[in-house]
Amino acid sequence: MDRRTTLAIGLVAAFGFFLEYLGTHGGCYFYGNMYLTKILLIPPVIILMWGTLGWLAWKVYNKRGLVAGLATPLALDAAISEPLAFYTGLWTWTGIHTSPIWFSTVGNYVVYVWVAIFAIVVFKKLEARR
Question: 29-31 and 104-105 as β-strands: parallel, antiparallel, unpaired?
Fold first, then answer.
């Protein structure tokens, strides 16, 4: 992995961390007790997840186009993360500010699209510098 890719993943992870901070400190949800450590209420694995999903959105965008790139993180969350969290307590939704839908909220799914957009823009900008 080259330095630009690592930087892009880090920027997307930082953006994801910022959004997680808003969600946890805004009372929208909290992470369960099974996580060994948390940074400002957010498990480090969740921060890494955002970087990974951003990289994946970029890869799918390059192969299948914008709609597929934006949909990939959203689809993974809806199909795997949210149902898993619901049944295991990985996180719990508390102060829902948008309509509930499929184990989560509309707002949460919008956030996944925002992160995918951010990731595609960041990766694209860094690729253009080559």
Answer: unpaired
